[in-house]
Amino acid sequence: MTRRQPRGQMMLDATRPTHAPADHPVLPQSRVGILVANLGTPDGTDYRSMRRYLSEFLSDRRVVDANPLIWQPILQGIILSTRPQKSGAAYRSIWNEELNESPLRTITRQQAEALRARFVSEYGDGVQVEFCMRYGNPSTKSVVQRMVENGCRKILFFPLYPHYAGATSATANDAFFKALGQEKWQPTARVVDPYFDRPDYIEALANSIRRAHPTPESRPEVLVCSYHGLPKRYLLEGDPYHCQCQKTTRLLREALGWEETRVVNTFQSVFGREEWLKPYTVEEVARLAKEEGVRNISVCAPAFSSDCIETLEEINEEIRESFEHAGGETFTYIPCLNDHPEHIDMLERVIRENLSGWI
Known about the structure:
The protein is α/β, with parallel strands linked by helices. It has helices at 47-58, 68-92, 103-123, 140-149, 166-180, 199-212, 232-236, 241-256, 281-292, 309-325, 341-354; strands at 3-4, 9-10, 31-41, 127-136, 152-159, 188-191, 222-228, 263-268, 296-300, 330-333. Helix 1 packs across helix 2 (68-92) and helix 9 packs parallel to helix 10.
């Protein structure tokens, strides 16, 4: 696409191809689409909504790669008979009652709206910015279909995961390409790379720590960087997630200028019986309090672009409780970057780099 003058307008295709007969179908104006994606969310906290969401999530072979002939009877017959109630209670403790939705959906929408405002102000209706969820609603399939119907002949797909993992980035890509595969006229597509070591991402993280602790006296004894866990087997099978998380923590510590012993790397959200990436956050914060006498810690979650059940409930409630029960006194949870302007600036730069040649 080329820009007309004055800046802010884009050259759009006509609604009917040139020289086409009068009965030729009218086509939508050609647009560039930007689709940001996050993990997912239940539609409600009731049993049926939670069961539907958990069934979709835990049936994904990227998430649980057990033989479905063995796993599905366990999932549908045992796990989903009790887990929806427990998960529903956890979601209710953080639910956005005003909008009747999870914080993840609220924040992801806010991120998309902030990005939309920036691109639309420059390119008008030549760019369409939307958001979708890998699990739950708005589904990837429904949003891709709507974007194609609206004339998006090129779509940039942006999974909002700083780090690559098969259970996050890859499955989001799977859903996106599956949706494209159902379109008669398939748009050209690009996928954004993980951004775990981008200097502007690291600086945005560092600034979030600085905002929480603006003076040397206010700094915690230990900063815990807690990442969502994965089975250790995934690392041994070639998933780069663990190494990317370690690099983010190192770069963050260097940006802050803190001593190596003052920043630790941990993993949370263990599920099942096999060994996951260690150390486990819930155990490590207790160990710090019990064995090292640490009384003041802060926890951040660099792998999450938006606050969600794993941060607002698991970190700020369960992991906080583990630290305090072990003798810890001051526990500070540092929110995700969410829709902070510095985060939106960084996401916009990533998008513009990946749109090179399209706009």
